[in-house]
User: Fold sn-glycerol-3-phosphate import ATP-binding protein UgpC from Roseibium album.
Amino acid sequence: MRMEFLELTSLSKSFSGETVLDEVSLSVQEGGTLVLFGKSGAGKTVLLRSIAGAIEPDDGTVVIDGEDVTSVPPEYRGIGMAFQNFALFPHMTAYDNIASSLTSKRMSASEIRTKVDAVAKLLKIEHVLSHAPKALSNGQKQRTALARALVSEPRVLLLDDPLRNVDAKLRFEMRLELPRLLADRGATIIYVTQDYKEAMALGDRIAVLDQGKIVQIGSPDDIYRRPANTQIAQLFGDPTINLLDVVPKEDDRGLHAFLSDQRVDFHGKFPGVAGRDCIVGLRPEALSFTETGGFPVTIEAVTPFNEKTVTLVTTLRGREILLSQPAQDPVPTGPKVNLQIAARDAILFDRETGNRIAPEPDGNRVEEAA
Ligand SMILES: Nc1ncnc2c1ncn2[C@@H]1O[C@H](COP(=O)(O)OP(=O)(O)OP(=O)(O)O)[C@@H](O)[C@H]1O
Assistant:
């Protein structure tokens, strides 16, 4: 069984009385990747810097491999970091930048050469090793910074939004390549990003940080299908989730709500929810056009993307709904068409708090088995 390798307990930090980290606790298994996801200013960088030892937390502990390193100087923590702004030494070549993280270790020049060459090959920057940073493209700078973090084979790797400044094409490629590359190194990784696709592609688990607090930790599937609140539901998914006001009712078939004429059943037990102001969350891909059944809508706009088509429709009552379907599926000729809902994908939230209403544990099993 894999061990928890990195453990943070109740880490807190304030600057001039303003709380930036609020009792953050989380752990990452040995060799695992945790993605730290959150909006700008959520505290992601401060958290990474606290783990690395560059910032001293006001409270809480950082434990690496069973050792409390909260008071250990950064250079003795066995941590490698790569930042979003590259932070390369401008007067050094790419090679020397990468090698700089090895110079404190007692290694011969040829050993250093072997290691730098290997990591440069992995990241496809062998041909620019003699260049100064100013002669590198953003993508090459980013790979150089990553190579520097990887080459010293740290036990823990902290990557602060390393793809933020690279162009879309490289970001797409790196999103595919990075998981294997990082898994091959065997390091325990915390990876910061504001891009939900990157978060879903890279993380075994995702921790969502909001105003210095962890608001949800789970697998990508958990966060997508069971978001803790409407805010998180909206952050994950493109196009964004449809959020529609409903007041669910209960009968002998259980809790349900009506969207136009279609009954949406919520599987499981939800005591006390009937009659409450709620929001139903429907992912755009949980909706589809149908010729029989469903409920009538009007097509307002059709937007084709490469791999999907997004259609905006309105219901008879004027509610706007986004629908996403594979690009090869035809959009019916409208404007009046019928829509159906894969009701088991509906997510229920409390309207007042925005928090997801989970079925009772017993009901959960019913839901999973359905
Ligand atoms: N050294 C510092 N002194 C005072 N305030 C700071 C310091 N470092 C960070 N902050 C504040 O802490 C908050 C969180 O900053 P942080 O850089 O961790 O956010 P972030 O989630 O990494 O954002 P981004 O995604 O934009 O990098 C911000 O309000 C920032 O102004």
